[in-house]
Structures are given as structure tokens and as C-alpha cells.
Design a protein that fits this description.
Layout (H helix, E strand, L loop, with lengths): L3 H11 L1 H13 L1 H6 L9 E3 L5 E3 L8 H18 L4 H25 L11 H11 L1 H15 L7 H7 L3 H16 L1 H7 L3 H11 L2 H16 L14 H29 L4 H5 L12 H29 L4 H18 L1 H17 L1
Antiparallel strand pairs: 1-2
Helix pairs in contact: 1-7, 2-7, 2-15, 4-11, 5-9, 5-13, 5-15, 5-17, 6-7, 6-12, 7-15, 9-12, 9-13, 10-11, 13-17, 15-17, 16-17
Length: 355
């Protein structure tokens, strides 16, 4: 267990992640949506540019405070999932698919044998990120991971403390598949706009649903055998194979989504993934709402995956190795997309750190 002194020693340099989160908060400008615009769900429907309207669900979780909070969040997804901001739709499709890999890694980090709160409870910050923006809260997670997690080291005790509980990781992987990945195609391509809106609700709170499934499966597994690994791999080679087996499907999905964008997106990638200036920063109407939301989601993606690469490199002790890994991340991002790239680079670092 890390001493308070060692935590403080790690916290001081890691505070750069807090500064990056604050920068994201400034650029994403979430307060403008709260204070300058009418409450998105106040009218009870989502208006489209062609005059059509989609009714906003009033109840989904049947828990009034939750429905009240996430009702406006679902409206924020409307320009992309309902298709009336076609440029942002391409960016968000990539971003949404990639988020699954990031959360899978959060879950794996929380299953290291020597880790404690708050890293062991990834659902908390991930849920805040759904409400307040991943670009703001994900850097905070990386900060907490550095301070309260298990640093990379070659001693036997350190390697043991960093070992991920593989049987539990398989349960989390199942949860990520069911509650994160399954809703995404329906959010973007369900036949009707009402169905897309429903699936947007279904995707909300996915970290909480995954956690509930995790404890449910563990409870069932304690009574009856389930077709999941029940014991920790006995060799490092098998340990690494399990990590690769769990991550490969999600990495391939992210790479496939990125390839689809590269080959079929009708807009320049600079338009899709680079935040464009607002036409008028002093106007607060439906048109500028869509513009601002597009910029916010682009910054969201930048800070989620930019800080993720920095965090992966954080514990690389050898400068040359760190430079090589950074270049791998950049090149893989261009080829396979940010989610697939970060998944691959994290696995490489894990393999090097654990032996």
C-alpha cells in the first residue's frame, strides 16, 4: 500500500491532468449550455431543421431524479444520432465506439490486486463524465489512477500488485459489450427517430448497468457454474493472452469504424475532427446550439484520448521507449483511429510492464 508521502510525490507532477481537465472545461464551455440556452427538454420534443419533431421520453428509469438529469443529456446527442448535424454524426460515431475501449481499460485498472478507492470504482467518474463531459472528468480519472493506483515496477511484489483479476475482467468485458456496444448501432441507425432516441436513453448510465451486471453475474456464478474463466491464469503468457482476447473484439470494432469513416465520409477529416470557430459567439439559438455542441464533442474526444496517451506514457521509465510508444500511438491513431490505437498501446505497455 502506498504511503501518504509517495501519493503526494505522485500527485504533484500528475496535477497536469487536473490542469488539462480544467482546460477542457473552458474549451467545452458546458456552462453556456446550462445558463445561456433554454432547458433542451422544456418543450417536450426535439425539433429538426425540416420542421419534424421527436417526442422526448419523460420516463425511462422510472426514477424521477435520474430521468430529470438524463432527459437533457439525451437531447444533447440528438444532432448526431437523429442525423440533423451530418458532420458531427461522423465524429460522434467514431467517438462513441472508441469510448468502450477506454471504459474497458478503466475497469481493468480497477481490478488490479493492489488498487483501492477510487480507482477500483470506475463507474462513479464515468457516470459524471456522461453528464458533465468526458474531456473534463477523464483527465481527473487519470490523475486519481496515478496517485491511488499501482505504479509500474519490476519487483515481484509490484508485479503481483499490478496483476488484473482475469475472471472478473471477463465479466466486465461482457458488460461493456452488452451495455455500451449493443446500443450504439441502434442509436445511429434504428429505422425510426423515436427508436434512436430510446436507444440513446438505453446507452445512458452504461457504467452503472455494467456494475450491476458484474455483481449479478458474480452472485449467480457463486451458485451455478457459468461459461466464464473461474481461475487466474497460472503463467504470464496465458495472462497476456486473456487480455488480448478480451480487448481484440473492441479494438477491431474501433478500427472498423475508423476505416468506414476514412473510406466513406464525404467531408474532409479536418472539418469532422477539428473544432471550427463559431459563426457568432453572441447568439444563443437552435443554430448556434448545434454549432456549439459540435465543438464541445470534438474537444471532448481530443481531451479523452489525448490525456489517455499521456497517461499510458506516464509510467514509461525509459525516454527512448516512451518516444517510440508515443510515435506508435500517433501512427496507429492515423491508421486505426484513437480508440484502437490507445487499446493497442495500453496492451503493449501492459505486456512490457508485467513481463
Amino acid at each position: 500500500m502506498a504511503t501518504q508521502t509517495s501519493k503526494l510525490r505522485r500527485a504533484l507532477p500528475a496535477s497536469i491532468f487536473l490542469a488539462l481537465g480544467a482546460t477542457a472545461a473552458y474549451l467545452m464551455d458546458m456552462t453556456t449550455f446550462v445558463f445561456k440556452y433554454e432547458q433542451p427538454s422544456a418543450s417536450g420534443f426535439i425539433s429538426h431543421g425540416n420542421g419534424d419533431k421527436t417526442a422526448i421520453l419523460r420516463s425511462f428509469h422510472w426514477i424521477s431524479p435520474l430521468d430529470e438529469v438524463f432527459r437533457d443529456v439525451t437531447v444533447g446527442f440528438a444532432p448526431t444520432t437523429l442525423g440533423y448535424d451530418l458532420i458531427s454524426r461522423w465524429q460522434m460515431f467514431s467517438f462513441m465506439v472508441d469510448i468502450g475501449i477506454m471504459y474497458q481499460i478503466h475497469a481493468f485498472e480497477g481490478l488490479r490486486k493492489g488498487v483501492g478507492m477510487p480507482v477500483s470504482t470506475p463507474a462513479f467518474l464515468a457516470t459524471l463524465a456522461q453528464v458533465g463531459g468526458g474531456g473534463i472528468f477523464v483527465p481527473i480519472y487519470w490523475f486519481l489512477n496515478i496517485v491511488f493506483g499501482v505504479p509500474v515496477g519490476k519487483s515481484k511484489a509490484n508485479v503481483e500488485a499490478r496483476t488484473i483479476d482475469i475472471p472478473k475482467a471477463w465479466i466486465y468485458t461482457l458488460g461493456v459489450l452488452v451495455f455500451h456496444y449493443v446500443p450504439i448501432p441502434y442509436m445511429f441507425a434504428a429505422p425510426s427517430l423515436d427508436e434512436r432516441h430510446w436507444w440513446t436513453w438505453a446507452w445512458q448510465l452504461y457504467p452503472v448497468r455494467i456494475t450491476m451486471l458484474y455483481y449479478f453475474v458474480r452472485a449467480i456464478g457463486s451458485v451455478i457454474p457459468l461459461p466464464l474463466p473461474r481461475s487466474q491464469p497460472t503463467s504470464r503468457k496465458n495472462y497476456q493472452k486473456h487480455l488480448l482476447w478480451m480487448m481484440s473484439p473492441f479494438i477491431l470494432m474501433s478500427a472498423a469504424a475508423w476505416s468506414y469513416i476514412l473510406f466513406f465520409c464525404p467531408y474532409p477529416l479536418s472539418t469532422v475532427f477539428w473544432a471550427q470557430p463559431l459563426s457568432d459567439a453572441n447568439v444563443f439559438n437552435t443554430g448556434t446550439f448545434n454549432e456549439r455542441m459540435r465543438r464541445t464533442l470534438i474537444f471532448d474526444q481530443w481531451f479523452c484520448f489525448g490525456t489517455m496517451l499521456l497517461w499510458i506514457l506516464w509510467n514509461v521509465k525509459n525516454l527512448g521507449q516512451g518516444v517510440i510508444m508515443a510515435l506508435q500511438g500517433v501512427v496507429l491513431t492515423a491508421i486505426a483511429g484513437p480508440g484502437a490505437a490507445m487499446g493497442i498501446v495500453w496492451w503493449i505497455r501492459e505486456r512490457q510492464a508485467m513481463g
